[in-house]
Amino acid sequence: MAEATVDIASVLELHGKWLRSEEGGKRASPYRANLRNTNLWGANLQGANLRYAILCGTYLSGANLLGAILNWHSHTLLSEILRRSAGDSVERRMLAGLIAVSTDWCWDKFLSLEHLEKAWAINELSKWVQPGDGAPDVIRAAARAAGGASVQCKCGSRAINDDPDKMFCDCCWRDAEIERLQKALKSADGQNASLWKNLFDTEAEISRLKEERTRLRNLVTGQTEFANAQRDRIEQLKSDLANKEAEVKKLKKLEREVEWLKENNETYQHQVLENKKLRKEVDAWRRTFPIMHVREGAVFACMKLPEDER
């Protein structure tokens, strides 16, 4: 069957839309697509159907292969999966490299090898088994033994490894975790925004209370000064009242003296009138009769006094 030539950039763009459930998206299923020596570094091939893709010499380092349907005859793809799981183990990396360079060997040849890490390689590859993906029997048996074949994700994948609850495949579990973390981040952002708002409101309230405290202090100071002024005024009024009372006492005393003087003056006036009356009578007698003078016990008869002596 003839190989197909594809525009890998367009395929990845449509696949990205499919992953995001956007309109026009399409799952990457490059059937018999010639991807030889293609650089797919960092490409998002999550959930892609690579069963019939030709991947000889394809650079897959950094590519997202979670939930992808594998081409179980691709040395490049299988060796990349094993290399990622090998870590720093030299023996495991050697086995992954052997698979990558031994393009003339098939499954029966690898399974006949006596290698210390062969069981590890079979166990790692069994994690990628999915229904109807054409995985070798020995790999599928290892998947069933590990319990992977009896559990199936809602997307149809049986590559259930990372989910602690064993409900989602690695791809779906990762998406669910990303969504959960995004929601948690959004919630945290909302809480942070609320906390910042509360902080700003609290600071504004503190400022308002400080201003109110200053206003009340000024008011209390003013009231205290007013009270002190009123107290001084009261003391002054008390002093003025005492002075007024003293003056009233003096006035009452003067009134009593005036009354006494009035009474004595009436007596005096009466006495003056009496004296004037007597003087008139005396003068009348003087004009008519001689005045009797008593001097040293002797009585002399005096003649009428001259006019100038009256």
Describe it for me?
The protein has seven helices and two strands; from the N terminus they run H-H-H-H-H-H-H-E-E. The protein has 310 residues and is mainly α. It has a domain at 8-168. Strand 1 and strand 2 (298-301) form a beta hairpin. The radius of gyration is 66 Å and the shape is rod-shaped.
Any descriptors?
310 residues, mainly alpha, two-stranded antiparallel sheet, 7 helices, rod-shaped
In short:
The protein is mainly alpha-helical.
Structural class by helix and strand composition:
mainly alpha
Q: Number of helix segments?
A: 7
**Which percent range describes the beta-strand content?**
under 5%
Order of helices and strands: HHHHHHHEE
Spans of at least 5 consecutive residues whose pLDDT stays below 50 are 293-305
Q: What integer is the average pLDDT?
A: 83
Q: Tell me the number of strands.
A: 2
Inertia-based shape: rod-shaped
Strand arrangement across the biggest beta sheet: 1-2
Radius of gyration: 66 Å
Q: Summarize the biggest pleated sheet.
A: 2 strands, antiparallel
- Which percent range fits the helix content? 55-70%
From the N-terminal CA to the C-terminal CA, the straight-line distance is 188 Å
